[in-house]
Structures are given as structure tokens and as C-alpha cells.
Amino acid sequence: MATSEELAQIDISKEEKDKLVAEVMRYVLFKTHQTSGCPIKREELTGIVTKNYRQRALPALVINEARDRLAATFGYEMRELQRTRTPSTRSGRASQPQPNAEAKSYVLVSQLDPEVYSKYVENKESAPLSGFSFAVISLIHLAGGKSSEEDLWHQLKRLGLKENDENHPLLGNNKQALELLVQQRYLLKEKLAGPEGHVVMYELAERALDESISGKLKDHISQGICPVCCGRAQADSIQAWKLYQRCEVSWILAEVRPGLGNLRTLALNDNAFTGGVPRELGAMLLLSQLYIYRNMLAGTFPPELGRTASACSWP
């Protein structure tokens, strides 16, 4: 909160300052709603202040007070974003920095208790898009933080999401749903020159790398919770799965827990898994279909999985 001395130095009254703070808060709230949470550039907020005032220190004062009031009144943190790195050019080389390029921007992040937010604030109609966002971020995270467009859509197709589907019953246009993640700064999209032509790459951007997102992501992956639906019915059947990456061995191992009894189909094809097929899979008594083709597996098929052998896609 600005003191009377600070206001006197800037030559503005408390009433004028409060009016500007309210205008900035209103703009941030409505713009966030209208653009589905896309970042708001600092220059947009500065323009509200400098429209009728020319004091250089005034924009920072108003924006900072708007941040404090949004937190105190609505439980929103107005979080500042900055690009993690400079986007590459089509040749694959980093572009030269430009004046005011990729300026600071802000997003609203709720600080409310999750149950309170879900009950009173969350838009239930946006749940499918949230699930899609989490699925995409999870896939790219498991790919090492970067994935080609071709590989990403290949994985999404296995979830029933086709690249050219413009009338998905929940997402609408699938391509536009993916592009929205770029606009929201969850993903960074680049077109790079390769030996066989241009390749479009997606990389995790600053919002996906934020601890509030990455922490939940790692927790969900470690528990085996399906990021597409995030439903407990799906989670109950695969909750004991853990992801291990040790030396040359990279496999998903199973611990025998009650929830595994519901798992009937397991698709792990088209990954870079190495080593042997774990015997622990034999504890999944209802498993009837196992897809592990196009990996780099070695050894023999475990006898514990004999009942599944006829329905197993083996390299």
C-alpha cells in the first residue's frame, strides 16, 4: 500500500491511485476469463496507467498494489512470467535479442484451498480441457521435456485424440486445444530445420515447469494416475505402478496391491524400454492384453504371463 509521502512524490491523490488500481484489477480478472487464462503483458497494464498519467514511477506502484489486492480480496496470486529462453529461428539457431521482446507478463494462480476452489470457483465445463492439458504436459515430460509434433500426436492418437479432428465432443478442435497451451505458455512451439525438412517441436514452457505444476505432475506419474481423466476409477486399477529409470534398464514395474486386480489391458508399445519383461506382471490376474511391441527388450517371455501370451504383442 502506497504511503501518503510516496503519492505526494508522484503527484497523485489517493483517490486517483485507487481508481487506477481498481481498473487494473478489473482488466486482469476479465482478460483472464476471456482468454482462458492466457498471460497478460505488463505493457497492457502499463497502458491503463499511462493513458492519462505520465509519472514514470506510477505504473509499478499501481501494478504492485493491484497484485496485493487481488491476493487479499480474491485469493489470486498475480504471478510474473518470463521466457525461460529465447525461441529459436527456423534454422535452429537462437535468435538475437530484440528490444522489449518477450516482455514480462502475468497470470492469475489461485491460492485458495483446493476444495474451496473446486466448490465455488472452478468451471466444471473446462474439466476436459484441463485433462487434455495435463495429458499433453505429462507426455512431453516423460519424453524428456521436448517432443516433435509427429511423436506427440502419435501418442495422443493412442488416447483417442486425432490431430485433424475438428469436432471432438469435449475439446472441439483438437489442434486449437493444443495451440491454446502455447498461448497459455505451458508449451513452447518451434519450427526447426532438419535433414529431412522442417520439424515442429514442442517443449515445456515456464508455466509447465513451475513447481506448482511439475510437482503435481511427478506425483500423478509416480502413482500411475491417468492424466487424461484424472478419475479415481482409472487410478484404482493402476495406482501401484511406478516409473523406474536405472542405468540401461527402463521399465514400469508392478507392486502387488489390491488395485491392480482391475487392470485388464496394458499398452506400453512404441517406447524405448530396455531390459526384460518383469515377472511381477504375472500378479495381475485379470490382465488379458499386453502390448509391448516396438521396444528394445531382451530375454524370454516370463512363464508367469503364460495365460496372457496368446494376447501379447511381443517384438
Automatic annotation (TrEMBL):
Recorded GO CC terms: nucleus
Highest taxon above the source species: Eukaryota
Gene3D superfamilies listed in its UniProt record: MAGE homology domain, winged helix WH1 motif, MAGE homology domain, winged helix WH2 motif, Ribonuclease Inhibitor
Biased composition (Polar residues): 84-99
Stretch list, region Disordered: 81-103
Residue span, MAGE domain: 17-223
Name of protein: Melanoma-associated antigen 1-like
